[in-house]
Design brief:
The complex is a heterodimer of chains A (about 650) and B (about 325). With about 650 residues, chain A is of the alpha+beta class. Chain A has 24 helices and 20 strands. Chain A folds into four domains: about 150 residues, no CATH class; about 70 residues; about 300 residues, no CATH class; about 70 residues, no CATH class. Helices cover about 55% and strands about 15% of the residues of chain A. In chain A, a hairpin with a 4-residue loop joins strand 3 and strand 4. The longest helix of chain A is centred in the C-terminal third of the chain and has 27 residues. Chain B contains six helices and 15 strands. In chain B, the strands form four sheets. In chain B, strands 2, 4, 6, 7, 9 and 10 form a six-stranded mixed sheet that branches. Chain B has a four-stranded antiparallel sheet with strand order 1-3-5-8, with no helix packed on it. Chain B has a three-stranded mixed sheet with strand order 13-14-15, with helices on one face. The two termini of chain B are about 50 Å apart. Classes of the chains: A alpha+beta (about 650), B alpha+beta (about 325). The interface between A and B is large, with 63 and 51 residues.
C-alpha cells in the first residue's frame, strides 16, 4: 500500500495538466532558445515515462540538483534572471520540474496557474491577430484541465469537461468586454521595461554591403500608411530611416548628431498621414521625406540629419500622425557648417584607392558638382552594372571591388559606391537607409510597406540647394523605384508571384491585412485616449474614475444577473416527451393556484384532490387527466389524442379563486 | 495574551456565524430543498491564489500596456465570477430527501445515510457532506437521479449523539469558490454501549418459563412449517420452498430447551457501571444472534423477555440511555 502510493501512475487529471502546460509553453516555441525547449520536452517526457511505467518519482536530492542546474543554465544563457526572456525560460523549465514532483491536486493547480501566466508572457512577444484563436484554445485547454483536476473523482467525459469549461469562457466573454472597455487605463510603465532585444527583422544602425539583401527576402510588414487625402506619386515615397555618416571602407555607421533640423525650407503640397509602425525594437519613426509635423513633440524628436526618433523604444505597435512635404531645399543663406561638412566628406585615405582616383579623374572632367553627379550616374547606367539580390561577396576594399570587379549589387552597394565617389571628390555626401515604395491595399485604402521595401540611397550637399537626394539604384534599375524590389528583379518566389498575379488571392491577402490593421488599431492600441474617445461616443463626457467604476459595476451586475437567469433555466427539467411536458405544464399552473401535486400522487389521486379542493376546476381537469393517462399508460398513440391534450392544457387557465 | 490566538479567534467567529445561520434558517425537516437563500459562498485558498495571480497579471499588462494581456486578465476575472455562479448553482435546488442513522456502538462508527435527489436537468458534481468530524464525498449525481451518501461518524461514549447539523458543500467547477449549505436536523442517534466483557451469561430463568410458553420457539429441532407473520426473522423463512412456488412459509423449531434469559445489572460481577453495561450489551447481542428470547432488568426498569429486532433495539437503547438525562427506555 505504501509502495503503491509512492508510485506515480499517470492519472487522467495529470494528463490534462500536462497538456495545458505543454500547450502554454508551445506558444513560446518561436522565441525560446532550442536548449530550453529541448530540456522542457525531455523533462515532460521523463514524467510521462514514469507515469506509464508506474515507477517512482525522482528523489528529492535529484530534484533539487536539477532545479539548481536549471537556474544556473538560465543565468548563463541570459546573463540575468530578470526580464521577459529569462523569466519565460525559467517559468517554462520550472513548470517542467514541478511536473516531476507532482503527485496531488494542489501541485497541479499551481502548475495550471503557471500555465495561465505563460500565456500572458506569450502576449508580451506579440499580439498578432493569428495568435488570438491559438491562445484562446490554449486558455480553454488550461481551464478544462483546472476543472478536471479540481474534480478528479467526478466521472466526466473529456467532451463534457471541454463543453463545460468552454461554456464558462463564453459566459465570461461579455464581462471581459465590459472590463476591457471600461476598466480605467492607467498609462504605464510602472517599472522599467527590461531591455529585451528580440531578433526582429528591420534596418540596423549600420550597413555593410549585402545587409539589406537579407531584408528583401522578408515579407514582414514594416509599417502601414494611410494618407488623409491623395498619396504622393511613387517616386516621392522615400521613408527616411537611419542616416549613415561614418565609413571605414567597408561598413557605414550611424553617428550621433544634434537634435533639430536647421536650415530646411519646405514647399509644395503637404501630405498628412497615419503611420502605423510595427514594433522593430528600435526608436525609428519612418517618416516620408521631409516631415513637417509629428504628433507628439515631446515623444518624438528630429535629428540634424532629418530622421525622426522616438523617445522610447518602440516595442508595441504604435500609430503616429505625421505630415510631410516631399519638396524641400536649404533655407536661403544657410550654409553647411565646417563640422558637418567635414563629417560628410571624411574617407579613410588608405582604403578604396582606385575609387578615389576615379573620383578625382571624373571630377576634373566635369564642369560642376551637378555635372559630376550626372557623370557618375551615367557610368552606372551605361557600363555593365547589374541589379541583383544575390551579389558575390566583396573584398576588404568593398567599393573598389564593386566598381571595378563584380559590378553586381543591390541598393546598399550602389549607395555606398556613389557616396564614396562623392566624398572622394570633396562633395559632402551621406547614405540614407529607409524604405521606398509600398503596396496599396485596395480593400482598406492604405499602403503596406514591407521589409522587402527596405532601401538605401544617397544625399549630397549642393550649395544653394541643400541636401539633395540621389538614388543611384534608380539609375541602374528604375523599375525598383516604380514597382518595388520584386518588380525590379522579376525573380520573386513562386508563391509571391502567384498571389500578385491572382486578383482573388491578392484580395484575400489584402482582406487579411485589413483585418490585422483593424485589430491593431482598435484592440492592441486601445489606450486611455481611445477609451476616452469610446466613452465620448457613448455620450459620457470627461468621466472621473468614480463614474467609470459605477458604470463598470452596473454593467457587470447586469451581466451576472443575466447569467443567473441562464443558469437557472438550464436547471429546469425538460422532458423530451410532449405528453409529459404538457402534464408538467398543467401541474405548474395548478401549483400557482396553491394546488401542488405531491410526489407520490398519481394523476387520478391528484384529480380527486382537485375536485375536493376546487370543485370549479374539476370539469377542466378531468379530461386532461384522462387524456394523460391514456397517452402515457394506456397505449393511446393517435395524434389526435395528443393534440387534444396539448390544446386543453394550453387553454387551461385556472382562476385564482372559485367563481 | 495566549487567549487571543488566531485559531481561537477563528473558532469564535465560526461559532458566531453558526449561531447566526441557525437563527436565520430555523430547524429543517426532510425532504428539504437547498434554496438560494440558504446557500453561502466564499472563495477557497486556491481562489485567493488565483485572484492574486490575476492581480499580478493586471499589473503586468498595465506595465507593458499590453492589450491582449488586459484581455486575458479580464477574461480570467470574468471566469472567476462565472465560476462563482456555477458553484452556487451546483448546490441550488438539490433535495435532501432523508437522513437516517444506523446502529452504533460506543467506540465504533455511526453510519448516517443521507439520501439526496437532483430534480434538475443538470448533473451535480463534487458534492461533499460533512457532519461533526465525518466527511463523505459524492462525486456525481446525474440529472433527475437520486443518490445515497454515508457519513461515518466516530463515537466515543454511549448515550445520545446529537447531530445538529449536516453541511453540504461543493467546489465545483474550478475549485475557486466553495458553496455550502447547513442543514439543521434535530437528529438524535442512540449510541449503544460497547459490547465487551468475558463473563458468561446467566442461566435461563425457569420460573418465567410457563408464562412465556408462547415465545418458546428456538431453532434446535425442526418441527414443521407455519404461515409467515410480519416480524419473523428472514433466517427462518423457507426460501427453498418459496423458490419452488410455495407460499411464504416459516420453519418452526422445537425450542423447548431454550428458556428465556433474564439479564440483570446486578448479575455482572465487575464494579464499574460502564463495564457492566458493556457486558449486558454483549449478552444481549449474543442472545439475539442465537434467537434466544431474553429480558432485561435495570434498576427502575424491567423489559419482559422476547426476541426480534424491535425488542433488541429497545433493550440496547435502555442500556445506552441508562443513567443519562433521558432514562425513558421504554420508548
Amino acid at each position: 500500500m505504501h509502495r503503491a502510493e509512492r508510485r506515480a501512475v499517470l492519472q487522467v487529471p495529470l494528463s490534462w495538466t500536462m497538456a495545458g502546460v505543454v500547450a502554454a509553453v508551445a506558444l513560446h516555441a518561436a522565441h525560446l532558445p532550442l536548449w530550453v525547449l529541448a530540456t522542457f520536452a525531455l523533462l515532460v517526457l521523463w514524467r510521462v515515462l514514469i507515469g506509464l511505467r508506474s515507477s517512482r518519482l525522482p528523489s528529492r536530492t535529484l530534484r533539487i540538483a536539477a532545479v539548481i542546474a536549471v537556474v544556473v543554465a538560465v543565468l548563463l544563457g541570459y546573463r540575468t534572471l530578470n526580464g521577459v526572456d529569462a523569466g519565460t525560460a525559467l517559468l517554462a523549465l520550472m513548470a517542467a520540474m514541478k511536473l516531476l514532483e507532482t503527485r496531488n491536486a494542489r501541485d497541479q493547480l499551481v502548475l495550471l496557474l503557471i500555465a495561465y501566466f505563460l500565456v500572458l508572457a506569450a502576449f508580451l512577444y506579440g499580439q498578432q491577430l493569428w495568435l488570438l484563436p491559438i491562445a484562446a484554445s490554449v486558455i480553454w485547454l488550461i481551464t478544462a484541465a483546472l476543472l478536471r483536476v479540481a474534480h478528479a473523482s467526478a466521472p466526466l467525459r473529456p467532451g463534457a469537461i471541454l463543453a463545460r469549461s468552454g461554456a464558462m469562457l463564453v459566459q465570461a466573454a461579455p464581462i471581459m468586454l465590459l472590463l476591457f472597455l471600461l476598466f480605467p487605463r492607467v498609462p504605464g510603465p510602472f517599472w522599467a521595461l527590461p531591455n529585451a532585444r528580440h531578433a526582429t527583422t528591420g534596418l540596423g544602425d549600420e550597413m555593410a554591403p549585402g545587409d539589406i539583401t537579407e531584408l528583401s527576402l522578408s515579407s514582414d510588414v514594416a509599417f502601414r500608411v494611410r494618407f488623409h487625402g491623395v498619396a504622393p506619386p511613387p517616386p516621392q515615397r522615400y521613408w527616411r530611416g537611419p542616416v549613415l555618416h561614418d565609413f571605414d571602407g567597408y561598413t557605414w555607421r550611424r553617428t550621433r548628431g544634434s537634435i533639430g533640423a536647421r536650415g530646411v525650407e519646405t514647399r509644395g503640397p503637404e501630405y498628412g498621414y497615419s503611420l502605423m509602425l510595427e514594433p522593430m525594437d528600435n526608436y525609428w519613426v519612418f517618416a516620408l521625406d521631409m516631415p513637417v509635423y509629428w504628433g507628439d513633440k515631446s515623444r518624438i524628436y528630429q535629428t540634424d540629419d532629418y530622421q525622426l526618433i522616438a523617445q522610447d523604444r518602440i516595442a508595441q505597435p504604435v500609430t503616429y500622425e505625421l505630415g510631410s512635404r516631399p519638396q524641400y531645399s536649404a533655407a536661403a543663406g544657410y550654409e553647411l557648417s565646417e563640422r558637418l561638412s567635414e563629417r560628410d566628406t571624411k574617407l579613410p585615405s588608405d582604403r578604396n584607392p582606385r575609387t578615389q582616383a576615379l573620383a578625382r579623374e571624373l571630377r576634373a572632367a566635369a564642369a560642376s558638382n551637378e555635372a559630376y553627379i550626372d557623370a557618375v550616374l551615367n557610368r552606372f547606367r551605361e557600363q555593365s552594372f547589374y541589379y541583383t539580390l544575390s551579389p558575390s561577396r566583396l573584398d576588404y576594399d568593398s567599393v573598389d571591388d564593386f566598381l571595378f570587379n563584380t559590378r553586381r549589387g543591390f541598393c546598399a552597394h550602389y549607395a555606398s559606391a556613389f557616396t564614396t565617389l562623392m566624398r572622394a571628390a570633396g562633395i559632402p555626401a551621406r547614405v540614407v537607409t529607409g524604405y521606398q515604395g509600398g503596396e496599396y491595399n485596395r480593400l482598406a485604402g492604405y499602403y503596406i510597406v514591407r521589409q522587402s521595401d527596405a532601401h538605401a540611397w544617397s544625399e549630397v550637399w549642393l550649395a544653394g540647394r541643400g541636401w539633395v537626394r540621389v538614388d543611384p539604384t534608380a539609375a541602374v534599375a528604375p523599375e525598383r523605384i516604380e514597382r518595388g524590389t520584386a518588380g525590379a528583379l522579376g525573380a520573386e518566389p513562386f508563391a509571391e508571384r502567384m498571389i500578385r498575379d491572382n486578383a482573388w488571392l491578392a484580395d484575400v491577402r489584402f482582406a487579411w491585412d485589413a483585418a490585422n490593421t483593424l485589430w491593431r488599431e482598435n484592440f492592441i492600441q486601445f489606450s486611455a485616449q481611445k477609451q476616452e474617445e469610446f466613452l465620448e461616443w457613448l455620450g459620457v463626457h470627461q468621466p472621473d474614475w468614480r463614474y467609470l467604476a459605477a458604470l463598470l459595476a452596473g454593467g457587470i451586475a447586469v451581466a451576472l444577473a443575466l447569467l443567473s437567469l441562464v443558469l437557472a433555466r438550464e436547471l429546469r427539467f425538460r422532458s423530451h416527451d410532449p405528453v409529459q411536458r404538457a402534464y408538467a405544464r398543467f401541474c405548474h399552473r395548478l401549483e400557482r393556484r396553491g394546488l401542488e401535486r405531491l410526489r407520490h400522487e398519481g394523476p387520478l389521486d391528484f384529480l380527486a384532490r382537485i375536485a375536493r379542493a376546487r370543485p370549479d376546476l374539476a370539469a377542466d381537469c378531468e379530461p386532461i387527466a384522462c387524456l394523460y393517462i391514456d397517452l402515457r399508460y394506456a397505449g393511446e398513440t393517435r395524434r389526435l389524442a395528443l393534440q387534444e391534450l396539448l390544446r386543453r392544457v394550453r387553454a387551461f387557465r385556472p382562476a385564482a379563486r372559485p367563481s | 495574551m495566549a487567549a487571543l490566538s488566531i485559531p481561537r479567534l477563528r473558532a469564535g467567529l465560526a461559532d458566531r456565524v453558526q449561531r447566526w445561520a441557525r437563527r436565520r434558517q430555523g430547524a429543517d425537516r426532510v425532504p428539504l430543498t437547498l434554496e438560494r437563500r440558504r446557500i453561502y459562498i466564499l472563495p477557497t485558498k486556491f481562489g485567493i491564489a488565483y485572484a492574486i495571480m490575476v492581480f499580478t497579471m493586471l499589473l503586468g499588462s498595465m506595465n507593458y500596456n499590453n492589450s491582449l494581456g488586459f484581455a486575458l486578465t479580464f477574461l480570467l476575472t470574468a471566469l472567476g465570477l462565472v465560476a462563482m455562479h456555477h458553484c452556487h448553482r451546483n448546490l441550488a435546488g438539490l433535495v435532501i430527501a432523508n437522513v437516517q442513522a444506523g446502529e452504533a456502538f460506543a467506540g465504533g462508527s455511526l453510519k448516517l445515510a443521507v439520501g439526496c435527489e437532483n430534480p434538475s436537468a443538470v448533473a451535480r458534481c463534487g458534492l461533499r457532506f460533512e457532519s461533526l468530524d465525518a466527511v463523505a464525498d459524492l462525486p456525481y449525481v446525474a440529472p433527475g437521479a437520486p443518490a445515497l451518501v454515508t457519513l461515518d461518524m466516530a463515537t466515543q461514549t454511549r448515550g445520545v449523539l446529537r447531530v445538529d447539523r449536516i453541511s453540504v458543500s461543493t467546489g465545483f467547477p474550478l475549485g475557486l469558490f466553495r458553496a455550502w449549505s447547513w442543514v439543521y436536523l434535530p437528529l438524535e442517534a442512540v449510541v449503544y454501549p460497547q459490547p465487551s466483557g468475558t463473563q458468561s451469561p446467566p442461566p435461563s430463568v425457569e420460573s418465567d418459563r410457563g408464562a412465556l410458553g408462547l415465545l418458546r420457539r428456538g431453532d434446535e429441532d425442526f418441527r414443521g412449517f407455519r404461515g409467515y407473520h410480519p416480524g419473523d426473522s428472514p433466517r427462518h423463512i423457507a426460501w427453498k420452498a418459496l423458490a419452488r412456488g410455495a407460499p411464504l412459509l416459516v420453519k418452526e423449531h422445537a425450542g423447548a430447551t431454550r428458556a428465556p434469559l433474564m439479564f440483570e445489572l446486578e448479575q455482572v460481577l465487575v464494579r464499574d457501571l460502564e463495564s457492566r453495561l458493556s457486558q449486558l450489551c454483549r449478552w444481549i447481542l449474543s442472545a439475539d444472534s442465537q434467537l434466544q428470547p431474553f429480558g432485561l432488568t435495570l434498576p427502575g426498569m424491567r423489559i419482559a423477555p422476547q426476541n426480534g429486532p424491535p425488542h433488541r433495539r429497545r433493550c440496547l437503547t435502555a442500556l445506552a440511555l441508562f443513567g443519562t438525562e433521558a432514562p425513558d427506555a421504554s420508548r
